[in-house]
Amino acid sequence: MNEYIFVEGGMIGTNRHGIGRGLKQPILIVCLLLALPGFAQPAGQCVLEKSTLTYHVSHPLHETEGISHAARGKVVCHAGQCDVLIAAPVKSFDSGDSNRDLHMVQATHGAQFPIVSVRIRLPESAFGASTVHCDLEIEFAGQTVQYRQVPFQEVTEGIYTRISGTIPATLSDFKISPPSFLTVPVKNEMPVRVETTWRPM
Known about the structure:
2 helices
């Protein structure tokens, strides 16, 4: 049976073939995947309580950050395996400049691929440590990219588990042409900081 999560603009199924093609920055995806470790419980389910996804882009003349709090996610654990799916609308990232945000949506083909999603599967035996290394699969801007052994930090407080880490994403990973300012393009690096809080269902 497929699991579903609801995001702005529609529904995404956990069945790979049912995932919305629209994907946001790989940064958001990675953050969501990190939540798996904290909820590794037999036959358990957890939902994303709150999140902050922040992408960073550098230019010789300025630094830019875009922030989203709109990610939705779910973790399902059964028979020693945990599956995590996280998704966020591409247009939910706010850099403080509406023109820049509109250009970002255009550059990442946000109209055609409005959702960015992250998937991860881990054995329960990988959970419990303060640092968990995750293999992530991100769908964004019409591309699917895998990141291996990305470290995330886990802290448990009562029923809540906080997962945080940085995804080493680049524009070229997703075949995105670097935007230019005064004819000078931004750097290829686009790290994404992920901060998530999960709770049992």
